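hey so i finally got around to running both of the ones u sent me last week. sorry it took forever, my laptop kept dying halfway thru and i had to restart like 3 times lol. anyway pasting them below in the order u listed, first the sequence line then the structure token line for each. didnt double check formatting much so if smth looks off just lmk and ill redo it

first one:
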Amino acid sequence: MGRLEGKVALITGGAQGQGEAEARLFAREGAAVVIGDVLEDMGRGVARELSTHGEARFVGLDVTNVQHWQAAMEKVEAAFGKLDILINNAAIWRPEGIEATTDESWDTMFAVNTRGPFLGTRAALPLLRKGTGACIVNVASGSALRGARGATAYAASKAALTNFTRSTAIQYGPEGIRANVIHPGPVNTEMLRTGMQGNHESAAGALPLGRLGLPDDIAYGALYLASDEAAFVTGAELCIDGGLRA
């Protein structure tokens, strides 16, 4: 306990799934947690629960919207005066192959999965400079590391996010700001269950560990990268995928 004591963390997509698991774990480890999401009722509910044991707030945040990011940073600064941790977790996934992917679907995928973390990183940098052991954790995907039979736009957007993370690490390492990326395998979340139309358990067959990931599996990886234990880790890629890449 206390691995993030005194730190302030903003987690996008924190109302459910992996983001919610990260928010709950970070709060248990002593962080003040700001949940950013478009799911206002769910996000406020999580924040209310967490605030009974520590500092937790909700901010309405569409990660594709520049003004939303500016407003979120203003609220974080007013409340805490700094930001130590930015978790770019919000994402969308669709299983479409190339011919099934519309122009709109491609653009939307990149807007959320790639442009969102870019806008967030740019907006957060002034506050991260005021933080201690400041870091950014981008949540990409194992799909970023290889070609995909489906989910073409998703895989491409996450590959772009991976390279963006490397550039962030190189450019801001001299200022003491770290940037790392997590590559989850298939995780049992609402996004996977909906996208696979209830057939999500079949994805476990491709994994050496023989089961789907849990949101907490990813959250513990994010906790390590966000903590001072990873003070010498930047530009790294952490696969939490049940052995899929092996």
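and the second one:
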Amino acid sequence: MKHNRINVLGLGNVLFGDEGFGVEAIRALEKEGDYPETVQFVDGGTQGLYLLDYIESSDAVMVFDALIPLDFESRVYVYQKEELPAFIHRKMSSHQMGLSELLGIAQLHGRMPERLVLIGIPPRVLDLGSGLSGEARELLDEAVAHGRAILDGWLQE
């Protein structure tokens, strides 16, 4: 199966500690490889609804975010499309549209990507201006390695 368009989204706010994990992860992944033009790396920040087209217009979407519940073990979580948990709704503001809402809209539109993967961690530090915590930094390489392996697999299909 040939994927004509793959979007790799990094979600989060780099101003709030571990909340910036997703953005840091896509930056690291993009630097590591020489990917074809069909792969687009998107710093999605906290853009909410403005990210819908990146989901609906893709054959495959990879999302990095620090949205795993805080009470979960501090490790990297990887969920494929059919495994996505119902709890992916954490957001920094009640005015934002979260990932679960975006996926729900794409599904209602009948425009879900064939492949979808979420790679995330539970954030530990959400302080303004703190950068990634030591725990999040330690998990970054592992998250990027998971992303690279999945992306390489998609490109070889």
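quick thing i noticed on the 2nd:
DSSP finds four helices and five strands in the chain.
anyway thats it, ttyl
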